[in-house]
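[#protein-structures] MJ: dropping Glycosyltransferase family protein here for a structure pass
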Amino acid sequence: MGKFIFTIQGEGRGHLTQAISLSQLAQEAGHEVVGYAVGSTNNRKIPSFFTDYIGDKPLLQYESPSLCYGNGKAVQVGKTALQAFSKFKTYWNSASELASFIDENRPDGIINFYESITGLHQWRTGAKIPCLSIGHQYLLLNKHFQTIPEKKIDQFFLNLNTQITAIGSKKKLGLSFLPLENDTKRNIDVIPPLLRKEVKELKSTAGKSWLAYLTHFRLAEDIMAWSTLNPDIQLDCFWDHPSHKEIFHYSANLTFHPIHAELYLEKMSQCAGLISTAGFESIAEAMYLAKPTMMVPVPNHIEQMINAFDGAQSGAGLAASTFDLNLFKVYQKEHVTDYSTYHHWIQESSRLMDIHLRELIQPDRKKKSSWKSLFTKRIHWTLPKNNGGLSIPKI
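AK: finished. structure tokens for Glycosyltransferase family protein:
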């Protein structure tokens, strides 16, 4: 059995939730998580649902790259990309903090939930400690994955960032809604979504109210406007608003809640459907509870655009470009999906993750790569095809 440190991207709730899920699976298999390191921006507070779960386990928080939204609702791709250069010294210091944390807790392996500083740490140390990277983003590098045909440049930068997070990783695990062939050439294995036992223990009932989850609070304006025109639909919306830290009753039929894991799951199990900004974890949970989902990506958020496309292809629900909830009202009458394949796939999580954790800490008989070759071996300087593969663009 092994001892592990989890490094986690702290933006949103998805990667933090996945870390909790894997903690549960690992402990059931006899492994131990000896510490957690969370990367966030501007010392953003780590949600209480995560800190409450880990209890008194060692926890490190440090500065890490994140998406930039500016003053609007859309992701600012250029500004997000420039972070790596303008704040490189800060991130280098974060890698030093992570190195000290790892030295103090002496793990057998590192489990990386799409955290950029982990890749920087592995590069500067020569990957002395074996690392495994997990996330839906790694599935996008799988040559068997079908992606959207548009926004090739955005996909290139997304995939480039994904490769950077996985520098020095022995293997990448791509979370997938449904089974997909592994990409052995790129060392990418496909695994089911990592759902917490609290989700699996819920009893789903057919309710009448709708549930919404927003990764950015400014997107709430569209839902507010729609709810005013549709007072017959009861809406509960979860957000991370900087000012509204308590429950906010916008109107008789629209209530906003601060992020609260247990209440969110309770509401999901009882709702008629979920409106989501196309985060992978929210879609995966809704599918398990057989709730139709309307997936509306944050503007310019390429990862969520791909999530919405993939979710629709997998039978999760409706992919849309705006919060025109009239579309969802019509769609719910048509939504019929057999979730049996998905449930069987989810049941494979425990077995597959135990195998991957054991393999990670087994002695590597192959000759170790030098630190100088780690970067060039991990990055594919190419653009994506429609099927998710990578190719050099014609000029």
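MJ: nice. Confidence is low (pLDDT under 50) at residues 367-395.
AK: one more thing. The longest strand covers residues 32-40.
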